[in-house]
Design a protein that fits this description.
The structure holds 2 protein chains of 2 kinds. Chain A is built from 16 helices and 4 strands. By secondary structure, chain A is mainly α. In chain A, the strands form 2 sheets. In chain A, strands 1-4 form a two-stranded antiparallel ribbon. In chain A, a hairpin with a 2-residue loop joins strand 2 and strand 3. Classes of the chains: A mainly alpha, B alpha/beta.
């Protein structure tokens, strides 16, 4: 891929290694890839691609999966995996739109629906965490079980029907614009910023990285690995809850089919972003770029009127290319 | 969902004439190429009119769920073929997706580009309503196909298959066969159970069975896939040692359903299909399986959508109607195909 050749000169002499090995160096490949995509978009789409409305369309699409991917970044950094975020998100949209919840919301305030979704998401995440940290179930299996049961529970609660959101305050808030930018995009930005601070500037983040790098060493260093693991899955559940609220705002409907296969989109964005799948290193900035690359790709494809089957093939190829590129950067950053 | 059903039935009655007109002319004329397109030329000459003359070029955005099974694939194929027939139609095809978040984004993109009309087959009608309303507010007519949006303000025209009618047709046929046996065991294999269209089909089926004193004994849901059909049917056959009739909602998953029936070596019952795939019609014609009949659910709906979008964008009227303007709602007919009349319907069957 040409992004590789374009970005290679940035590999630096030793004294600049620490800086380039940091945020920018690791994300340079992604920045180049995103810029290339935008160039392709501008060349092929012209004004149809390069206008504010289209950029906002890309960002709105990125917002929901982006929030899930932020939570996923923590899980993967800690050496785990969470396959349940899409299902949990679906469950949260259903729970927050049941007749009972909506009636309560209408009688008090629409934020009741928000709290419901967040609580359901967090609770499901904590159940994952309990099974993994204290029940010693492998994360893949524990969250796979949650994937199945959350979807089933959502179907039971909703009676397999789509539930419209009738609380006007809720819909008005989440469909609104603030300073010309949709509320959903602001939420994504806020979650990303909070995630960045949490991962890079707090003990919570350092412990997450330590556990992912070597859980035994982390335990010997005095980190309460089990409790911390519980928190991390709770956090992923919370982001699923936030994503559910955003999805409700976007679709004005809660259904058990929401978030189908979102876990894979989120994992793909995280890994393309440069977080190691085996844990021990994570980057929120990379994840945000990963999400943006995917959504921009979709947008450029649509603008070029590509046949849908060709789009899928191209998308798969680009995922592999991006990961190869990313690995190259990662190994160079380590070996130099 | 009963409110929805009643409404669509009421609409259906008011536009019965237009539906009939569509079936006999426009609908039949746009075959997916699977049938060597031999039907296209002949039938097209029947429906060609001043409306088919090249007019102002219009840009039509088309968005549909992923073509993950035969019927949906045929929908998209027929739509693309129809668009190609017209020199004055420029079709923008959005990535087919089962993710409503992404489908909303595609419609936003169409609005942003300022296309002349949007043909929308939503994955979930409720979830796409809001963005369709935005398109309408932006002055872009939305032609809603197959799965109904939840607000009348969200579309300029709506083309629906008759899901309730499918259930009624299937139920009525089973009643004719089993009516004298009140203890008959009738099983139903649904598609995706939480879609309104599935609930409409099941409601129509239950209502028409009730007319002859029968009821659905067992109901299982596949997910419109061959794999799902196989799994659901295997379980169903395990659970019910004796069955008299099965209605399978969808011929695509029917491939799996038939496989499961053959694996189990069961043939004490007869089966009615749904949608009208060519494979099923061939089985009906040959009489070599438990399949006795199927109920048509036209795979040419989106092609009709493209035609209507073009007419609306060009400010034309629909042929053979005295009233002005393209109708608001068009509901297509769901006939039963049996060995007696299968030859007549082979031309609109689709390959799954």
């Amino acid at each position: 891929m040409s992004a590789a050749t374009a970005a290679r000169p940035a590999e630096s002499p030793t004294e600049r290694r620490s800086w380039l090995g940091g945020s920018l160096g690791r994300n340079l490949g992604l920045v180049v890839a995103l810029i290339l995509l935008c160039v392709v978009g501008v060349i092929t789409g012209g004004d149809r691609f390069a206008n504010i409305g289209n950029v906002l369309t890309i960002l709105r699409l990125a917002a929901v999966i982006g929030v899930l991917a932020i939570g996923m970044t923590f899980v993967i950094t800690s050496g785990g995996i969470d396959l349940s975020v899409g299902s949990v998100m679906g469950l949260a949209t259903v729970w927050a739109t049941t007749l009972a919840t909506q009636t309560m919301a209408e009688n008090s305030h629409w934020t009741v629906m928000v709290f419901t979704a967040l609580a359901v998401g967090t609770a499901a995440g904590l159940v994952n965490g309990l099974a993994i940290a204290y029940g010693r179930v492998v994360p893949f299996i524990a969250t796979l079980a949650m994937l199945a049961s959350a979807r089933g529970l959502a179907e039971m609660i909703s009676n397999r029907q789509t539930q419209r959101v009738d609380v006007d305050g809720f819909v008005d808030f989440f469909r609104a614009d603030l300073l010309g930018i949709p509320v959903l995009v602001w939420i994504f930005a806020a979650v990303a910023a909070a995630g960045w601070i949490l991962l890079n500037r707090t003990t919570f983040g350092r412990r997450t990285v330590a556990i992912g790098g070597n859980a035994e060493a982390a335990r010997l260093a005095g980190i309460k690995v089990q409790r911390h693991t519980l928190y991390i899955y709770g956090l992923a559940g919370l982001t699923a809850g936030i994503a559910a609220v955003m999805m409700l705002g976007r679709t004005t409907a809660g259904t058990s089919t929401h978030g189908m296969l979102y876990e894979l989109d989120a994992i793909a964005a995280v890994v393309v972003g440069g977080t190691l799948l085996i844990g021990g290193r994570g980057t929120i900035t990379g994840t945000v770029f990963g999400v943006l690359i995917f959504t921009t790709l979709t947008n450029v494809f649509t603008i070029n009127n590509m046949s849908t089957s060709a789009q899928s093939v191209a998308k798969g190829a680009i995922i592999v290319a991006a990961v190869l590129l990313q690995q190259r950067f990662a190994s160079r950053a380590k070996s130099t | 969902m009963s409110a929805l059903t009643t409404r669509s039935r009421a609409f259906g009655a008011t536009v019965a004439i237009s539906a009939a007109a569509l079936l006999t002319t426009g609908c039949v004329s746009n075959e997916p190429p699977a049938e060597e397109s031999q039907g296209t030329g002949e039938t097209d000459s029947g429906s060609s009119s001043s409306n088919d003359e090249t007019g102002d070029t219009v840009v039509i955005g088309f968005s549909a769920p992923a073509a993950d099974h035969g019927w949906m694939g045929a929908i998209t194929r027929a739509a693309l073929d129809t668009a190609e027939q017209y020199d004055d139609v420029e079709l923008r095809q959005a990535e087919a997706t089962n993710d409503v978040n992404m489908q909303i984004s595609h419609i936003e993109q169409f609005i942003n580009e300022g296309v002349d009309a949007i043909v929308l087959l939503p994955f979930d009608g409720d979830a796409l309503t809001e963005v369709a309303m935005q398109a309408m507010e932006a002055g872009i007519p939305v032609i809603n196909v197959d799965r109904e949006l939840s607000s009348p303000f969200a579309s300029r025209a709506t083309i629906l298959g008759d899901n309730y009618g499918m259930g009624v047709s299937a139920g009525t046929y089973i009643c004719e066969q089993l009516g004298d046996n009140p203890d008959a065991v009738v099983a139903e294999i649904q598609g995706i159970a939480n879609l309104p269209l599935t609930q409409d089909r099941s409601q129509g089926f239950a209502d028409s069975l009730a007319d002859c004193g029968l009821e659905v004994s067992t109901q299982v849901a596949a997910d419109f896939t061959i794999q799902g059909g196989e799994t659901a049917t295997s379980n169903l056959l395990q659970a019910e040692p004796q069955i008299d009739a099965i209605w399978n909602h969808d011929d695509d998953q029917g491939v799996g359903v038939l496989a499961a029936i053959e694996n189990a070596g069961r043939d004490e019952f007869f089966m009615v299909g749904g949608a009208g795939s060519l494979d099923v019609m061939e089985h009906i014609q040959a009489g070599d399986s438990v399949l006795e009949a199927t109920v048509i659910y036209p795979s040419t709906q989106a092609a009709d959508g493209i035609k209507m979008a073009r007419l609306i964008a060009q400010n034309k009227n629909m042929d053979d109607l005295a009233s002005a303007g393209v109708p608001r709602v068009t509901q297509l007919y769901a006939p039963v195909v049996t060995a007696d009349n299968v030859d007549q319907y082979m031309s609109i069957g689709f390959r799954s």
